[in-house]
Amino acid sequence: MPRIVSAQVAASWLLVIVPCVWLYAPVIAKLVHDWTQDENYSHGFLIVPLAMFFAWERRQRLAGTPHAPSWAGLLVVLAALALVVVGTLGAELFLTRVSLIVMMAGALLFLHGWGHLRILGWPLAFLLLMIPLPAIVFNQIAFPLQLLASRVGTTAIQACAVPVLREGNVIILANTSLEVADACSGIRSLISLLTLGIVYGYFADPRPWMRAVIALATIPIAIAANAARVAGTGVLAHYYGPQAAEGFFHTFSGWLVFVVAFLMLFVLVRALARLWPIVPPYRSPSAAGVRA
After folding, report:
1. Which of 157, 159, 166, 182 is CA-nearest to residue 239?
2. pTM of the model
3. Residue 241 falls in which region: left (phi positive, over 0), alpha (psi -120 to 50) or beta
4. Residue 156 and residue 257 share a domain
5. Does residue 153 share a domain with residue 25?
6. Which of 58, 159, 216, 265 is the most buried (most CB within 10 A)?
7. How far apart are alpha carbons 258 and 207 in whole angstroms?
8. Distance (Å, rounded) from C-alpha 61 to C-alpha 123?
9. Has residue 21 been placed in a domain?
10. Same domain, yes or no: 99 and 153
């Protein structure tokens, strides 16, 4: 009987996967293309393997959960198809990409039931990190970050006794002017550090509330680190000229600041672990049943 059930399940998934590959092939191809072209989402290549690892980690729980297919999954599949249609007609890539994850959730619910969907809910939700934000949302976040970075950076430069004037997102020094452009707003490091914080929190602490704290802590850390980068660039440009804010030095400072930001996150996690240590025995709901 188990072999018959497995064969039926495999056949059912085959009937789902084949049309989905045909339907979503252009969506996936464009998504991968954006990962290669948009440095803000180059981490997308890591999201799918990590999501697969999170799903594999739950294999024993899945094996011990009975199959209870739900017709509600068919409604979710229809909702995913509606998102594809609306996104395609409206030329909205975000909707078509989200529909892919909704489709996987609906198929899982329809073929296996709520128990399996609850177990794989985290890996499916994690896949959302691979989808670039809509341009209108991205700009609504990037522009305030530009102003904040330029404002804080100007204050820090003044604290170093360097004469400076700010006009919007332009920092005016005695010998040059620095524009805090979109690439310097810090949103790139914010998105990357947030993703890294979610993954790091998952492995560092089994408690859901602590994982949420770690993930949220990446936001002020990324903002502060980028403001420090802007300030440091301004000070160097004042003493060594505009070339300190261009080319290799500009790129290297970005990597250096990201490393510093991660070290700040590491120190914060260690401090939180000391303040709120795990009281044994504690077993994470996501880890229950994973290990033999």
Report:
1. 157
2. 0.81
3. left
4. yes
5. no
6. 265
7. 26
8. 14
9. yes
10. no
73 is written with which tokens?
Answer: 């999954």
Cα–Cα nearest to 231, from 140, 151, 131, 117: 151
Q: What are phi and psi of 178, to 5 degrees?
A: -115, 125
Whether residue 117 is found in the same domain as residue 145: no
Question: Is residue 176 in a domain?
Answer: yes
Residue 170: which domain range? 136-275
Chain mean position to CA 211 = 14
| Nearest residue to 180 (alpha-carbon basis) of 168, 193, 191, 165 | 168
Same domain, yes or no: 64 and 140:
no
Residue 280 placed within a domain? no
pLDDT of 152: 84
The count of structural domains within the chain is 2
Q: Is residue 197 part of a domain?
A: yes
Long-range own/partner contacts, residues 124-130 (CB < 8 A, 24 or more apart): 124/51, 126/47, 126/50, 126/51, 126/54, 126/198, 127/47, 127/48, 127/51, 127/101, 128/98, 128/101, 129/43, 129/44, 129/47, 129/195, 129/198, 130/31, 130/35, 130/41, 130/44, 130/47, 130/48
Q: Are residues 86 and 153 in the same domain?
A: no
The helix or strand, by DSSP H or E, that contains position 167, with its residue range, turns out to be: strand 165-167
Report pLDDT digits (tens) over 91-106: 778 899 999 999 999 9
In this prediction, the residues of the chain whose per-residue pLDDT falls under 70 are 1-16, 181-185, 244-251, 280-292
Helices (H), 205-246: 208-240
Q: What is the C-alpha to C-alpha distance for residues 254 and 144, in angstroms, rounded to an integer?
A: 19
Provide the CA 166 distance to its chain's centre, in angstroms.
32
In sequence order, the 6+-apart residues with CB closer than 8 A to the CB of 172 are 164, 165, 166
97 and 153 fall within a common domain: no
Please tell me whether residues 213 and 97 are part of one structural domain.
no
| Three-state secondary-structure class, residue 176 | coil
Q: What is the pLDDT of residue 123?
A: 93
